[in-house]
Structures are given as structure tokens and as C-alpha cells.
């Protein structure tokens, strides 16, 4: 705001809210007003929840997931198949795969992809701990590389495959194909080619 | 999330973030992850800012603005023209008018509009204090009614005009017309008619 119409506490709240992904300067003001109006129901609880997260959230030293304990809820869940590890770029991907509920297994979060242009090399990612995790004989039989289907993702997938070469583990990757509910008309040629090549019998 | 992949503190944070206007369940997860990753730069400061707002924000007993002091920054600003009071529906409108920096005067926040269907009558709005503010002879010479150009807003404007009738104050309203930068092609007939009627000489 050009002129200050509210106290510095409110101005600071708006500035910080504007940095939250999904909110901009305009919606941050709207959010701040809404929070102030719902002081008891929302502003207070959100302040407490953020403080609790700040004080308790940590990164799992085994898989790289974020949680309030280390090892994390996923790594310590004994009902999971410990023979399968899904390698993902980001915690958000882990959450997305968990929402799909397709597998009940372990994960490994890389924390990004190899990107020489941005100066991100193998040592900047959580790759060495993955190799150690597999070679230590913890029981992993399959590693599913579930990185994004981008150039950087595929480069990273190849690098990890090389690093795991020789270890007693099966390496797989996600299938390419038509998204469920997707319309062929809107898909790119690469996806259509992959979907045709990997066609299955009805 | 169907299965819990993170501790209850993170789940609760996501649930609360999803209630912030501008964020939904999906973007709340993204926001929570971003906050967790930027623990020192964003999560911590935001927790503190929210706690500070919770502890210090109050409603101005004079004009209905929200601020960290009562009377608020606007009401106590001696450089403002105390002869003009702009009546708005909501604090957001006050902030919007302040951003425009067109006037340097006082405000009065109604806290809504008359809406018999929703059971909102004159006593539910900040109207009586406005009448008292004008009749007490604080020095107000003009009341600009800047409510939204909706049916409820206009009904409220008429009601306030009636209530202020007989007091020594000029009552004005915002001009109707073509928004600056607006294209005629996209405007409704009511706006075009109003803009034609209130045409000014070049």
C-alpha cells in the first residue's frame, strides 16, 4: 500500500502472506482481512499450527520426506512393502503418489533433478544415500524411478540407473501413455507415440 | 489425504491453509510444503506475524476499520481532511480507496449492506454510530457514500441518505461511468447509459 492504513503488524502479515505460493499481493490483502475477521476460528489456530510446524517439522534422514519425526511416518510404517522404493523428485510427488493409494511401499526423495545449467550436480541431490540404502541390503528388491517426464527428470533417471548398476535390484520407471480422462486431440505427439508403442491387448 | 504420510501437525496446517481465501485443498498442500521448505525465511516469520496480529488487531470504535490501535491510524491522522467521511461496506473497500490515493479524508465502515433476505437490518450494520458521528458536530461537511453499485448497496445508500436527512451535511455518491481502461464493447447497458447521461465536455 502506498499509504499505511493499518498498523505495521497487519502490513507485515500481508507482505508475508504474499510470499505464499498461490497468493499474490492482491489476494494476500484479501486473505489477511479474512483472517482478521475470523480471528478466533482461523487466525489464531493458523498461527498455532504454523508455530507447531516450525518447532516440530524435520526432514527424514532415511528417505528425505518431511515429517514431525525422524525416521518419518512412511519409513516406520511396518505394514508397508519394504521391498519396493519409489524414487521421486520432491516431497510433493511423494504426497501425490500416496493420494493415488496405488502402492503401499517406501520412498526416496531426491530433492530435485540434475541440472548442470543451474549448477545442480549429483552431490546436491539425495542420490548417494539412495545407493547406500540399496547396497546396505535393507531388503529393497525394486526401485521405481518416478521422476517427472522432463529432460532433467530423464537425465536424473539415467544417472541413478547407472549408479545402481550391478546392485541386486530391479529398476523400473513409470509407464508413459494417455492420462486417464485425457482427450487424444490435446495430447502431444510424444505421448501418443509412447501410448501406441506400449499398447495393451483388450 | 487418504493416508497420513506426514505428522498431525502438518495435516492440521494443510487443513487450516485450505480455509484461507485464494487457497484450496490442493494449493494448501503446495503452500504447506513451500512453507516447510522455507522454515527460517517464511514459516517462522509468518507464524510470528499471525500471532502478533491475533494479539494486537482490533476494530476501530470510531470508524470500524481494523488496526492495531483504537482509534485507528486513519482516524488519528491529523493531516487528513476531517470534513469528509467516505462510507464503505467493508474494510477491503477502505483499503482499495486508500490505494487509489484520490482523497485524504476519514472513513466509516458499515460492515455489510442491508439485506432483508439474509436478515441483515439497520441495527446489524454500523449505521447508528455514523449518524451520531455526523450529528455530534465533529466537523463532517460531506459524506461520500461509496458502497458497491449492487442492489443491496444502493438500498443501503438510500437508507443512509434518509437517516442523515436534516443534518447539516452534504451527501454525495461515487460517479457511474466507463472504468478507466475499459472497453465499451464489454460494458453492460446500465453502465453505458449512466456514462452517456453524465457525459462531460472535452
UniProtKB/TrEMBL annotation, chains A, B:
Which keywords belong to this entry? DNA damage, DNA recombination, DNA repair, Metal-binding, Zinc, Zinc-finger
Keyword check for Zinc-finger: yes
Q: Does the keyword DNA repair apply?
A: yes
Q: Give the Toprim domain ranges.
A: 83-179
Which Gene Ontology MF annotations are present?
DNA binding; zinc ion binding
Q: Give the protein family.
A: Belongs to the RecR family.
Functional summary from the UniProt entry: May play a role in DNA repair. It seems to be involved in an RecBC-independent recombinational process of DNA repair. It may act with RecF and RecO.
Q: What is this protein called?
A: Recombination protein RecR
Q: Which gene encodes it?
A: recR
Amino acid at each position: 500500500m502506498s499509504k499505511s492504513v493499518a498498523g505495521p503488524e497487519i502490513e507485515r502479515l500481508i507482505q508475508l502472506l504474499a510470499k505464499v505460493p498461490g497468493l499474490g499481493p492482491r489476494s494476500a490483502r484479501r486473505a489477511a482481512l479474512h483472517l482478521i475477521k475470523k480471528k478466533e476460528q482461523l487466525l489464531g489456530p493458523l498461527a498455532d499450527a504454523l508455530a507447531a510446524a516450525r518447532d516440530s517439522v524435520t526432514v527424514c534422514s532415511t528417505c528425505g520426506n518431511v515429517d514431525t519425526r525422524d525416521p518419518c511416518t512412511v519409513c516406520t510404517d511396518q505394514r508397508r512393502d519394504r521391498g519396493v522404493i519409489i524414487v521421486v523428485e520432491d516431497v510433493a510427488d511423494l504426497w501425490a503418489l500416496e493420494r493415488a493409494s496405488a502402492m503401499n511401499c517406501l520412498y526416496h526423495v531426491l530433492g530435485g533433478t540434475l541440472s548442470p545449467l543451474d549448477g545442480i550436480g549429483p552431490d546436491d541431490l539425495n542420490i548417494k544415500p539412495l545407493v547406500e540404502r540399496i547396497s546396505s541390503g535393507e531388503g529393497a528388491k525394486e526401485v521405481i524411478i518416478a521422476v517427472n517426464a522432463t529432460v532433467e527428470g530423464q537425465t536424473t533417471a539415467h544417472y541413478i540407473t547407472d549408479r545402481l548398476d550391478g546392485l541386486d535390484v530391479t529398476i523400473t520407471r513409470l509407464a508413459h501413455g494417455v492420462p486417464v480422462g485425457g482427450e487424444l486431440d490435446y495430447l502431444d505427439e510424444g505421448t501418443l507415440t509412447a501410448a501406441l508403442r506400449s499398447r495393451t491387448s483388450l
